[in-house]
Amino acid sequence: MTGITRGFTGRGRAARDPRLPPGQYDARDDWPVLNAEPTPRLHLPTWSFAVEGLVEREVRWTWDEIRALPPARYTGDIHCVTTWSKLGMTFDGVSVDTLLDAARPLPAATHVLAVSHTGYTTNLPLADVTGGKAWVVWNADGKPLTTEHGGPARLLVPHLYFWKSAKWVSGLRVLDHDEPGFWERNGYHDRGDPWQEQRYQGD
Ligand SMILES: Nc1nc2c(c(=O)[nH]1)N[C@H]1C(S)=C(S)[C@@H](COP(=O)(O)O)O[C@H]1N2
Ligand SMILES: [Mo]
User: Fold this and answer.
1) Cβ of residue 166 lying under 6 Å from some atom of ligand 1
2) 1 lies in a domain?
3) Domain of 72: which CATH number?
4) What is the pTM of this model?
5) How close is the Cα of 188 to the center of ligand 2, in Å?
6) How confident is the model at residue 14 (pLDDT cuts 50, 70, 90)?
């Protein structure tokens, strides 16, 4: 009877990957492109990234200058609120710690507003972008970030839903209060922890 019972006694569906937060699926080879605004074409000679606001000194880096900072790598997972995740990705860039250390946030600083060259914004507590948890990245899986995925450089805050990872990032505005960004004003959760399924306001 083994031929008949095998289908019922087997393991059934593959075990769920423990790296997937609740309600997420593994997009595997697919990397969906999501942006609210048209994809911009940014010109490297005029590109810049700045840390501004409540800092001891505002700092702005050109493309060559930011690329010359100590390199940092993230290897791990990303999770989009629309339920796809990608597991085991590698991103190369610079740690946000390095960028903030250069500008030195004032004691009153509590949050940052990440801003894009397109005007997209997203807010983050300072604690979510310090301590090795956030990067500005220009390579994904060993290749330059494509324009559609935020190239030349995007923010990467992989422990929060991916809308916090602003594409075409132009800087961080350091604040002494929380200021909702684009999606946070449009119904998304203020913080967006995928392990707590903080998708929408009220979650
Ligand atoms: N500038 C900008 N960055 C953005 C967005 C956007 O609309 N504009 N969307 C966010 C959302 S909702 C997601 S899921 C990811 C998508 O990144 P991807 O297109 O590289 O997958 O970018 C985030 N960063
Ligand atoms: Mo998203």
Assistant:
1) yes
2) no
3) 3.90.420.10
4) 0.94
5) 10
6) confident
